[in-house]
Amino acid sequence: MTSVEVRNTEKRLFVLFAIILLCTFILVGRLWFLQLARGEHYARLADGNRMRQLRLLPPRGEIADRNGQVLVRSKPAFTVSVVPGGYLQEDEESLCLLCEVLGLTPEELAEALEKGKGFPYEPVRIKQDVQPETVVAIEENRMNLPGIFIEEEPVREYLYGELASHVVGYMGIITASELQRYGTTYRGSDLVGKSGIEQTYEELLRGETGTLTVEVNALNRPIRTVNVLEPVPGHNITLTIDAHLQEVAERAFYEHILNLEDNPGTQTGAILVLNPQTGEILVMASMPGFEPKNLIDQSQRNAYYTSLSNDSRRPFFNRVTQALFGPGSTFKPITALTILEEGVMSATERFNATGTSQYGVKDWVINSGLAPFGMIDMYGAMGMSSNHYFADNGAKVGIDRISEWMRKLGFGKTTGLDLFPGEVSGIVPSREWKRQAFSDRATSEQNWYPSDTEQISIGQGFHQMTLIQLAQAYAAIANKGTVFAPQIVKEIEAPDGTVIFRAQPEISHTVEASQATWDALSSVLTAPITHSRGTARGVMAGFPYSMAGKTGTWEVPGRISNGLYVGYAPVENPEVLVAVVVEQGGGGSSAAAPIARKIFDAYFGLDVPLE
Q1: What predicted TM-score, i.e. pTM, was given to this entire model?
Q2: Is a pLDDT exceeding 70 seen at residue 46?
Q3: Which domains are assigned to the chain?
Q4: Residue 453: which of 425, 426, 433, 430 has the closest Cα?
Q5: What's the pLDDT band for 611 if we cut at 50, 70, 90?
Q6: DSSP 490-506
């Protein structure tokens, strides 16, 4: 072999060696990249193919009434879940089969799968509380339904239908904003509280999620449990609500409105019952209510929510804390307070009620063609609800002082009740308020006139308030100036039985007035029940305990009036305060007072049917 041929051979061997060395470096580099640099990543992918980590949802905490009667609890039920990454979404036959078994439309299934976007190997719950026959159907078709899991999970159970629905609240699918707020322990298919206690105490009621790690086969069917981290149950919440009294109140409302003489067909209103000496709320009812269980039942959730949203009666609206009402004559005790404290007239001074005030406000007897009241004191004026008395004397007090007293009593601001959705503030009318409210009108319409003050004084003016604000004002009278913060949660208990919260009476504010004024108000507020012509005398006849209270009718132009009643008993040691409003129910004595009477009877264990 010549030297040239040797050199050529050596070159070829060198090139071959270089190629082999390069390939070796590439293979070694690739192995390093796969096993060391990206080894953990690919290990996770491998585990994702054979391991499934299922979230174990904890039993949600119970909600009970003040006597321990459970209103809401969790029960075990079957849930169907899908692993989006393991389910053949392009397989139309499997999709149709799954929809048929679960009773879902393709759109509903697609929506459920969308909730799991971003977590391809984590199961997404697509239907909860399924029947055993559905579970059997899925197991029978297991070969055709890859990626489907049957889990046993706690499902919310509402034991008393609509009872106290605005207090208890309801649950629904978590939204994007809620998902961001609650954090990484939640997923897009989770149910969360949307209103009431369910929303206000969502994170306490929920508990802590656990995990179940299982190994799956090629059909995504579990074959072995690898690890279990048990969930921690949610906290139990005891309410101040009395379920029996709540039921009495709601039933009394619905039964009574069917028998109103004018038969206006009203179906809306609100009831609040509280202990004025502690602030504990015994009844909070807003009519109409709703069925919380229908809002978590996937077979009817969307249709039911739509029907509630389109209902003109606004069933989701809590009329105790969110609706604004004119008080009608239930405002007259507040006017009486200002008359006494501003020195306009004492409770025993006589006033000549001719029937028509200086600026045209008329007594109801004049409008009915009856004789005027004549010489009356504050007791008679309150008992017979004389507009003339309160209009004239309220005008002497003046709007500036009336507005100030309203603010002292808590009007124009929320009471601080911790319940979602929150309260509204209402309106305390004043000269400045009218200037701003009527700023787009002529200056003459922006000015405040004595006639405006007269209307305010009898409860027919610009003022707007919630039922809970009105009740708190009466609580100030009942307690002779002391107002306790309203409370709806009595106790919160941790999963281990430790009580982490127990409500104690908390003074919200104190209304400073003389003892003589408070004593006089307590006395004159009995007049609607005890006076021979008292507006609530007939309804409250035979009640064995002393009672203070006032009927009211808020007149709304162009429609039937709202009827109101607010009262408390016993007068000497007030245990219970009842406030009722019946929208478009007519007069307070006929529309609201009979409902209040049934509640008082039930509270004191009388339960005597009214004739």
Answers
A1: 0.87
A2: no
A3: 49-82+151-213 (3.90.1310.10), 243-603 (3.40.710.10)
A4: 430
A5: very low
A6: EEEE-TTS-EEEE----
